[in-house]
Each structure stands twice: as structure tokens, then as C-alpha cells.
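Risk register update: the risk of archive-format incompatibility is retired. Evidence:
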Amino acid sequence: MQLIAAIFCILLAVIGFKSLHLFATSNGLLGHLERIITNKSTPAGRPLRNLTTGGRFPRIDLQLNAVATFLLLSCEDYSEPDVNLVGFWFDLSWGPSWILIVLESFREYSQSRLMSWIAIPGLFIFNQSHAVFTSLYLAIRLLVAVPATTEESLMIDAIHVHAIPWSFLLGYILPISLMALPGVSIYNFNTQHMLASFYQQWHLYISMVHILLVTLWTHTETIGRLEDGDLKTSLSTVKPVYALAFAMSVISVWIPILVSFAIRTLQRIRKARPFNHKNLQLSSIFIPPSPWSNAKCKNAFEGGKWLLQWDGIVGGLSTAVWAVALYAEARSAVEPQEGLGSFCTRLMWYMVLGGPIGVATGALWERDMLLL
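Archived output:
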């Protein structure tokens, strides 16, 4: 099962490369972005002053400026509501994927092995793409992982379990909300652009917050209370981590659905001239055009939306494949009395509620319920 899942993740990485890198070239997105960056403007045409390294390091300036300019596609203002919703979905679905990877890296079966070192893979994932490098990284994990089929293999230091939700709340959700929500301004637009460009390596900021929390708690009585209450990893110990991941996945799916429905309903009631009415259809928000098609984007907003859609879909599917493979490995060792049909039914509900990341979160939770 592990080998099959790894092969599937590699195939998803290939699809991700085609859907992101090659499709972005053929549909015209890269050309649109190049013109925006050259003109030193935002995607909507507003003047933008580069406040990164001030020209001292041109290549770094170009990299940071490109990242922040791309971020502005989904959060500059509300003129492109479909792109806003896709950006919201992408940000809140990528986060839970990394939560699950971080959680597994602290497990006993991952310690002192390649799987516990996630900083370097994180650099590739966040510098390049979720779809390509998350898929490749999870394929490698599946190929080199030792079996996680016993209670002991899933043990985690209590302090790390308690720090994970806080590190993501402070190191990911709060900064992303301040920088990526349309209409939320940090001092001024240029400053917001600069902060967004330097926040590209957001997994490092999550790690920094995590290390600070663990260090603080280690030198206070907090660690003693945590260890006294959680001598062994239990379902109640890891439940808050899974709850945060699943809540983010559910919100990422259903907020765009509800907002899309509400806007289109209000437009019908008021009989107002619809703006981007067609783009607010659920099919436009969640289903991108085929990367093998000859589709051309009208502007950077549309091309950016397609890229985010494929990045989230492929990255989410690879995370789901990895998690289901870990569940199958544990199930084969435990041989539960419950039929496989019941598990598949729950997976369907996880999919309905939270999409592929909901499936991944649910599968790992089910694995823990088997072993803990």
C-alpha cells in the first residue's frame, strides 16, 4: 500500500508541474505577471513602491516582489470576488496540510530520521509549489518511513502537541489574516506588500513561534503540568491539533460556498446588474480548466485563480493519499472488527465537509483511534 501511495503521489507531482509551471506559461499568466512587476504596479494598476532590500540585492528583490505581487492577486481589493474566495480557500486548505506534516514529524516513529527534518523540504514547498513539492516530499516519506503500527510509534512529547495549535494560530493564521484579507491594511499598502514578500517562508515563522513557546514553557512550571497530565499520548492530547486542522479545512470549503450563494442570491433579490456573476458559480471557484487545454487567461487575476486552484487541488489530494496510506498500514496491523465500508462512509463525509484536506485529517484521526 505504501509503495502504491508513493507512486500515486509522484504522479500527482507530475500533474502539479504540468498544471502550475507549464500551464502558467501556456495560458499567459507569467506574461501578465512579468508586465505587472516591470511596471512596478499592483495587479489592479495601482503604483507600488518596492520596499524589500532597496535594490541592494536585485535578485532577492525580484523574488520577493514576485511573491508579494502574486499574493495581491487574491487580496488587493474586492474587485475580483471569485479570486478572493479562491485565495481564501487556498490559504486555509494549505495550512492544515502542514499541520498534519508537522504533527507526524514529532511522532516517535519519525524521530532521529529524515522524516523529522521538515525545514529543508519546507523551503522547497513554499518557494516553489504545494502541488509539486508536497507530493514529492510525501512520496519520499511513504518510501522511507518505518511502520507506525503501534501505540509507542505514535508517542509525542506533550509540550510539542500543546504548542502546535498555538504556533499555527500565531505564526500562520494571524499573519495571513492581516496580510491576505482584502481591505485589511498594515500601516500602508507598500508596507503590507513588503511584509507579505518577507513572509513567503511562513513555515519558518511557524517554527520560530513553536520554538519560542516550547522554550518558554520548558523554563516555567507549564511543562511540569503538561507532563503530569499527559504521561502518554492519548486521543484527548492530540484532539485539539486535529480539531484545528479539520476546522480550517471545513471553513476553507464552506465559507466560499456560502459567500457565493449569498452574493448571487442578493443580486437576484435586488435585480442589480451582476458583477462577475458567472465567476461566482461554484464551478468557477472550485473547478479550473484542464492544463492540457488551450485556455488563455484574460488577465493575471484569472490566471492566478487557475494556478491557486490546481495548487490546492493537487496538494490536497497528495496529502489525502498519504494519510489514507498511513491509516491502511495501521489497519492491516490491528485488524479491527469494524468493516471497511464504515470507514469509507466516514471518508465520504470528511470529503463533503472539508475536501481532500478534510479526508487527510479524518484518516489520520481514524488511525490514531485504532492505535491509541
